[in-house]
Amino acid sequence: MAGVLSVGWRRALLMVVDHGAMVGAFAAATHLRIGLEPPLTGLGLIWRASLAALVLQVCMHYSDLYDLRTLHDRPKLTVALLRSLGVGSVLLAVVYYWLPQLIVGRGILLIAAIFIVVLLWTDRVLFLWLSARIGPEERLLIVGRSSAAIELARELHERRHELGVELVGFVDTRVPSGPETPTAPGMERIGTIEDIPQLAARYQVGRVVVSLVNARGQLPMEAMLEMKLRSGIRFDHLASVYEEYTGKIAVENLRPSWLIFSEGFRKNPLSLTFKRGFDILFSLVGLLLTFPIMGIVALGVRWSSPGPALYHQQRVGLNGKLFTVHKFRSMRQDAEKATGAVWATQGDTRVTPFGRFLRRTRLDELPQFWNVIRGDMSFVGPRPERPEFVADLTTQIPFYGERHVVRPGLTGWAQVRHAYGSTVEDALQKLQYDLFYIKHMSIALDLFVVLETIKTVLVRRGS
Q1: What dihedral angle (degrees, nearest 10) is formed by the CA atoms of 238, 244, 248, 252?
Q2: How do 234-237 and 189-192 pair as beta strands?
Q3: Strand, coil or helix: what is 15?
Q4: Using CA atoms, how far apart are residues 381 and 341, in angstroms rounded to an integer?
Q5: CATH code at 138-261
Q6: Cα 120 to Cα 22: distance, rounded to the nearest angstrom
Q7: Rounded distance between C-alpha atoms, residue 307 and residue 329, angstroms
Q8: Which of 106, 131, 369, 382 is an S-S bond match for 434, by CB 3.0 to 4.6 Å?
């Protein structure tokens, strides 16, 4: 997909430039500090400097320095850069303590850090400057103005430097009755459907995005065919472009025919076997590594409030089958005695102080490794919901039941892309991410979600 590829190569280019700049900074610092003495020359210096650069780049990733949306915020950029270098220096000190043969040289890291701050800050400023000078890779025109079209417009505007895309505006499916305030940057109404050929030529549009919810049966098909054959202009459904640039599927514009004829949503037996092996391996390792931590957490739960350490609750799993999920208790024992099943909310008074800590760190989810080993859950997938909520959401949200065609997950694409929420609107947003995951499900995507989950936990996003 063009949106993903555009972001991917830009981010990859920035990572390569950063790596080269950091290796150069270590080389310059080495020369200033101790001169060119073996083994700190040639390959002996480069591989040591590369290792140090990789450690620092991991820290930069967890500080969002490779999220291209943050490039324009220079104060935040500077703080994140200094923070990642500080954490990276601590990690390198630990590595050098255990493996002193990897040390580039004494006193070199501090000098290199000064060069690194200057170089990395400068290359990001240059990246923005070049993006503005080179201009967008693609200009889009939207036909129709549904809520999904407006959300796409906001997404494109916020990520314009990252994506290299410019939204020129939209054409309405009706004759305008007068001026109106744009609902999103770039969403100015610049004409009607009959004006599409002239507008495409005037604004050098490369792609026309059509919201069929608004424009079905009204499009000038002959003129659009002429534009495609003679000018090479692309025409795409809003649902496909929305998926491409947002990482979710717009339920509002979704039709059963789109699901049927769309690529993806495949269940390859070999891939499912690998996924199951991935689940078992990661869960066994997780249980072994966290077993001492779970003992401490259990004692903390019992100490902080009366009641058992574990909490057992029914959830909806694969194909709608109910199973029992296991968690460390984060609420009072009688939390739902008076109300019955209700969603947890931000600042929920039913959550104990220790429970809030467990939720922020996701430690309350650790017993679910056992659910994964049993086969009730997968390591990555849509989060399982309570049957009481599923019954209501299925009647309120189209295609909600489709999230149960795969095993629910300990973590998921929606969890690393959407903030915590407890409303029907939040459930809709998470469903759109879940459908994207189901469509593109793969081991590579699972690994990416696991890495992003670690990042989410470390920086304490969500709850």
Answers
A1: 0
A2: unpaired
A3: helix
A4: 23
A5: 3.40.50
A6: 8
A7: 9
A8: 382
Q: Could you give the CA distance from residue 378 to residue 347 in angstroms, rounded to a whole number?
A: 29
Q: Looking at the chain, how many residues does it have?
A: 463
The two three-digit tokens of residue 409, written as one number: 């997950």
CA gap 149, 242 in Å, rounded = 8
CA dist., res. 209 & res. 27, Å (int): 49
Residue among 290, 291, 330 at smallest CA distance from 311: 330
The model's pLDDT over 279-335, given as tens digits with 9 standing for 90+, comes to: 999 999 999 999 999 999 999 999 988 889 998 999 999 999 999 999 999 888 776
- Res. 126: pLDDT tops 90: no
Peptide bond into 39 cis (omega under 30): yes
- What are the domain boundaries of the chain? 2-134, 138-261, 269-458
Q: Give residue-wise pLDDT tens across range 24-56.
A: 998 888 888 776 554 445 567 788 889 999 999
- Separation CA 377–CA 318 (nearest Å): 8
Q: What is the mean pLDDT of residues 246-259?
A: 76
Token digits of residue 406: 């795969």
Question: Beta strands 322-328 and 207-210: pairing type?
Answer: unpaired
Contact 210, 236 (CB under 8 A): yes
d(CA 383, CA 24): 45
Rounded Cα distance, 185 and 158, in Å: 9
Cβ neighbours, 10 Å, residue 297: 21
Asked if 44 and 78 count as a contact pair (C-beta separation under 8 A), the reply is no
Taking alpha carbons only, the member of 294, 327, 346 closest to residue 410 is: 327
Q: What is the pLDDT of residues 363-395, one digit of tens each?
A: 999 999 999 999 999 999 999 999 988 988 898
Q: Is the dihedral of CA 37, 38, 42, 46 positive or negative?
A: negative
Helices (H) and strands (E) in the chain, counts: 18, 9
